[in-house]
Amino acid sequence: MDVDGEGVSAVATGDRTIPMHPGRHEAFHQFTQQKLPACKPVLTPAWVISIFLLMGTIFIPIGLVTLHASQSVVEVVDRYDIECIPEAFKSNKLGYIKDSSIPKNCSRFLKVYKRMKAPIYIYYQLDNYYQNHRRYVKSRNDQQLLHGLKYNGTSSCKPEQTNNGLPIVPCGLIAWSLFNDTYEFIRGASELTVNRKNIAWKSDRDHKFGKHVYPFNFQNGTLIGGGMLDPRIHLSDQEDLIVWMRTAALPTFRKLYGRIEEDLNADDVIVVNLMNNYNTYSFGGKKKLVLSTSSWLGGKNDFLGVAYISVGSSCIFVCFVFILLHMKNRRPYGGHNLFVLEQERHL
């Protein structure tokens, strides 16, 4: 950097020296010396108290609204994995679920404690099921799901890649472990119709699962993992599979099974005839059936509302603490004092 009597005349960058326009000398000098004009807000106690008070008055009402929306959702939850085991197999649950000769049918009675407006969403919930395990998540091939047997690079699907020397479609542990419990719902003397269409994301149906890809050589091995797939239906219409293949991030999760398109009244008793096929006993998992309505915010989840209220309440609390501290240790903040403090800071 060369400096003349008026300031900087050139700047060296590596092997080159760049001459500077005389009009830029002063600006460049101010930039290098950090003397450019800048906004320097002075956070007085009044400003700090006002900001916290404003945040509190905004966050608390939002939290109350979202919490009310969550509380308006009606849920009926029933754990059935223990109750649906015959008394003779209570001490040998694994033997019961693995023995295909033992009937797996079971009936449960659900009482509706509050009116549920259609659509009523049917979920199955699994606990202690780690779909986010690295080896499990990687055991799939998205190109095969889209193109079928035309795509052969399925090494990521091991150990469910081939069977008897033939490729498996869909391959991988995720598809192999497809959930296969089934449910029927009866109210009074009539069976409730369950709509099982459009339970998967439209983007998944249209862009991730091929319309000309059909199951091939699936669940034909000696060890059956979960549900079967109809080889006559292409994958983009196998919505149970599409829902299952979107893996969960947490060990407790719910997946959509279907929808009931009619209202349920308070004190209605719903008879659920289910098939307890899926093995969660080998790893200490739990199975639950969930009937739920929805609100403008989605399903029942109090976390967002509680979080807003907690943050808003904390802001109000801090606001009052600052008010008390300011009243106890009041200091003069006139314009002259601010000017003096600013001048002293630059000395």
TrEMBL record:
Q: Which GO terms describe its cellular component?
A: endoplasmic reticulum; Golgi apparatus; plasma membrane
Localization terms from the record = Membrane
InterPro entries found in the cross-reference section: CDC50/LEM3_fam
* Keyword match Lipid metabolism: no
Name the principal localization, coarsely classed.
membrane
- Enumerate the transmembrane spans: 42-64, 303-325
Q: Which domain of life is it from?
A: Eukaryota
Q: Which UniProt keywords apply?
A: Membrane, Transmembrane, Transmembrane helix
According to the UniProt entry, the coiled-coil residues are none
Q: What is this protein called?
A: ALA-interacting subunit
